[in-house]
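request received
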Amino acid sequence: MLMGRIHDLTHKWLRGELAAAGLSGIVPSHGDVLALLFMKGEATMHELAAFAHRTRPTTTVLVDKLEEVGLVRRMQSEDDARSVVVVLTAEGEALRGSFAAISKKLASRVYSPLSKDEGEMLEKLLNKVLSNLEAAKNAESAKSD
Amino acid sequence: MLMGRIHDLTHKWLRGELAAAGLSGIVPSHGDVLALLFMKGEATMHELAAFAHRTRPTTTVLVDKLEEVGLVRRMQSEDDARSVVVVLTAEGEALRGSFAAISKKLASRVYSPLSKDEGEMLEKLLNKVLSNLEAAKNAESAKSD
DNA sequence: CTATTATAGTTAGATATCTAACTTTTGTCA
DNA sequence: TGACAAAAGTTAGATATCTAACTATAATAG
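response:
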C-alpha cells in the first residue's frame, strides 16, 4: 500500500519531467528501454523486454513509439533472422545527458528526507523483500511443470 | 525502480489470490473500495475515490463492476440529491473474512524475510519518503494559483 | 430571488499494459 | 534429413487507468 502510493507519485512526477524535457508521450517504460540502449549501445526486443520488466508485446509498442519520435531505429539482426536489433539514433544519443539528470533528480527527490545511513538501510530492506518475492514467484511457477 | 518492481509483483500475486477466491475480474483497486465499505458500512463515490487514490471516473467503473457482480449496491443519498451512497450487499458482507485473510497473507508475504525490527524500520522509512513526496506534490500544485 | 460558481457523478475518448494467438525462423532428435 | 518443438517478434482484443467535457444539483453573492 505504502509502496504502491510512492510508485504512483514518482511515476506521475516522472511523466511531468519528461514532458518538460520536450518528450511528451514518453513515459517511464520508454525510459527503461532507452536506459539499456545508453548502457549497451544496442539490444534485441527480447533483451529490452527483460530489462524493462515488460512483456514482448508491450515492448513492441514502446519501440514503435520511440521509432516514431525518432529516438531509436530497428535493424535486422545479422546472426538471427528472427531477431530485431534496436539502436539509438543521433537524436536518441543526444538525450543521454537529460536522462541522467532526470534520474539523479528522481533519486534525490525520493531519498532527500533520509540520512545517508537511512537511505542505505531502505535499499537493503527493499532488496531483501524483493529477492524474497522473486524467489516465491519462481517457486510457484515451477509448480506448474 | 525497486519499489515499482515490488509493487508489480504484489499486484500480480493479489490478482491471483482474488481469482482463487472466486473473484475473477476483481482487482486490487476493487479491494480498496471494499476495504472502506468494510470499515464504514457505506460511502459516497467521492469518499471511495479519495480512499482508493483513484479519480472519480475510475471509481465509477470500479463500482459498476462491483455492482455487476453483486457485491455492492448504489443508493440515492437522502441529504444531497447529487450524491450516490454505496453499500455492501449480503454477498459483499460475506467476503469480509476472505479479504482479511488475503490482506494478512499479503503482509506476511512482503515482510516475511524481515525481522520485526527491520519490518518496523522499513515502514518508518517508507512513511518518511511518502510524506516528503506528498508535501512536494502539494507545494508544486499550489504554485498554479 | 436570481445568476453565477462549485460540487457529485457519469460519459467519452485516449493510453499503457496484459494474454492469446499467429508468423517466421531456428534448433533438435529419431 | 524431415518433422516437431522452441523462440523472436507482431497483431488482436481486453482491461485499468487517466483527462476533458457534460449533466444535475447545491451553495453563494448581489
